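Section 5: illustrative case.
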């Protein structure tokens, strides 16, 4: 071990401060994270700092993601045990899933950390999340993309970035799909979670091929299924997307009866316009409900990955000029559950 980690600061709540009930960015807050870490855990690790941008993650644009990715690419991986990327919580899930693809073959750990509260708020777990990332990096001998995050009254968990799903409403807590995290920090030691769904450390040590989709295209409309959803309101008379994604119910279903709520009618509309429709997510081993019979054959289906990952794969396929179905079927960094 080199006892040396590259820290890339990008802003977010973990790089913010509180002022009169308003949370906003403060450039000098970045180093405060390392200062607070050293106060509690000592100076055994050398941190080199980079600051390619300072932004609240909800304001992230494609150019900002590119700046962030280019910064990661510029790091000489042979000089470090790992890379820590600080990030806002609002779009942490998207960036984690995205970077798990474009950096799927990284040979050292890349760990994203964030905080629900600024570091000057006693409720903040930013230092704990950062310390969890440091502990994980210093504990493993393989690369990959991960997320270090501590929910309320829990140990700090380490997630495969390709399995992270959207934060819970209001509380803003993070979990992996199926609630199977990759490991956790106990007594400041990393403990691997032995689950049939998790890749083993040996799996992580095997070389991985680079992802063949690297560019993003945002010409995508996403729709979440809910009761009484009226598909007739989705009409693309002025601007036509390249693809539409529909997030199905947990059982892989959506309304297929009636008129305006009938997804099959919407499928026919999109087909007439030449718009590819993707449904996500479908468990390949689950039984099919009668309402969903034939759907998989009528459109493009994302099997055995989260909706968040499916979204990333579609955006990358569109941006890289690749077949969407092929991109969804690739398993770049253990995103597939089966």
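Designed sequence:
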């Amino acid at each position: 071990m080199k006892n040396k980690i590259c820290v890339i600061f990008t802003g977010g709540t973990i790089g913010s401060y509180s002022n009169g009930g308003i949370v906003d960015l403060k450039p000098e807050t970045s180093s405060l994270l390392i200062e607070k870490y050293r106060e509690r855990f000592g100076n055994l690790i050398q941190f080199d700092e980079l600051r390619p941008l300072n932004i609240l993650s909800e304001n992230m644009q494609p150019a900002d993601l590119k700046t962030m990715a280019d910064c990661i690419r510029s790091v000489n991986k042979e000089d470090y045990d790992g890379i820590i990327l600080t990030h806002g919580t609002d779009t942490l899930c998207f960036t984690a899933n995205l970077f798990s693809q474009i950096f799927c073959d990284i040979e050292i750990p890349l760990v994203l950390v964030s905080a629900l509260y600024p570091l000057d708020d006693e409720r903040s777990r930013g230092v704990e999340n950062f310390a969890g990332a440091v502990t994980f990096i210093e504990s493993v001998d393989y690369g990959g993309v991960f997320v270090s995050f501590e929910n309320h009254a829990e140990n700090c968990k380490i997630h495969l970035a390709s399995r992270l799903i959207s934060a819970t409403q209001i509380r803003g807590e993070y979990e992996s799909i199926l609630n199977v995290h990759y490991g956790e920090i106990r007594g400041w030691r990393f403990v691997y979670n032995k689950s049939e769904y998790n890749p083993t450390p040996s799996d992580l040590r095997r070389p991985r091929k680079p992802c063949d989709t690297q560019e993003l295209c945002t010409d995508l409309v996403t729709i979440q299924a809910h009761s009484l959803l009226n598909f007739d309101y989705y009409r693309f008379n002025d601007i036509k997307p390249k693809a539409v994604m529909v997030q199905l119910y947990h059982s892989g279903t959506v309304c297929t009866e009636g008129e305006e709520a009938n997804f099959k009618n919407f499928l026919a509309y999109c087909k007439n316009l030449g718009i590819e429709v993707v449904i996500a997510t479908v468990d390949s081993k689950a039984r099919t409900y009668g309402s969903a019979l034939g759907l998989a054959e009528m459109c493009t289906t994302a099997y055995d990955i989260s909706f968040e990952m499916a979204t990333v794969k579609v955006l990358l396929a569109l941006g890289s000029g690749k077949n969407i179905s092929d991109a969804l079927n690739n398993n770049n960094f253990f995103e597939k559950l089966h």
